[in-house]
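Subject: sequence -> structure tokens, single chain

Hey, anyone have a minute? Need the predicted structure for the following. Not urgent.
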Amino acid sequence: MRIFDPHIHMSARTTDDYVAMYESGVRAVVEPSFWLGQPRTSVGSFVDYFDALIGWERFRAAQYGIRHHCTIGLNPKEANDPRCREALAVLPRYLAKDGVVAVGELGYDSMTPEEDEVFVTQLALARDVGLPAVVHTPHRDKAAGTTRTLDVVRASGIGPERVVVDHLNETTVREVAESGAWMGFSIYPDTKMDERRMVAILREYGTERMLVNSAADWGQSDPLKTRKTGQAMLDAGFSEHDVDVVLWQNPVAFYGQSGRLHLDPVPGFAEDEPVAPATFEGNSVLRGARA
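Reply:
Had a minute. Here:
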């Protein structure tokens, strides 16, 4: 089973997670920029974070056989903080970087006027630079937030096929399916979606434009939920081709619109070999016996 996790926050995860992910079939990820868990206080903290996403995290993932890509944006939670607005000015230079495959996460948290403004600004930026957009739907009042999200997307002029509306559930999927946008589902241990519910949605709506992710971060989450969803699909009677469509072909098709995906195997990693743990010596990283 080959897996491309289209939404996972690896900066919050350990190298042990990379090892387990590789052994479970994960070969590529996209890491959307997001809230760190506490307020950022200046644009400099965004610059440092964006630099880490396009540099260190991409390098770290490769040590474990996984291709790392990212999205860059001002997330909706921080859109309400005037100290963070300066980050909008630095986005264009990062959106031109190799490995940046979309603008995001953007969208709504509390559906404030400030979030409206930042959302519209970043959708226009995605449209102008020719990148897809990763849109976060709010955790509270999700149905109304999804409707409002789709209204803003329609008004922006960006094609719906270049937008994934993420963190969906049973109450919001139909509206997004009918809009022509891609549908994103985060599979979590105790909240959002689980494997069983995801399988039921796939039975009802099919596999077209469906993206399944772990959205794993610093909270209670599981970076292997993509693999577990694939197994749940097989157990429910879906074919291996169906699983490949959802866990590999769909994220490749969506993010491939950026023209920046790098999906060739990482040199030194064979498909039939487990990944070796990394060891650190000074400024170099060695991969066990492969060093």
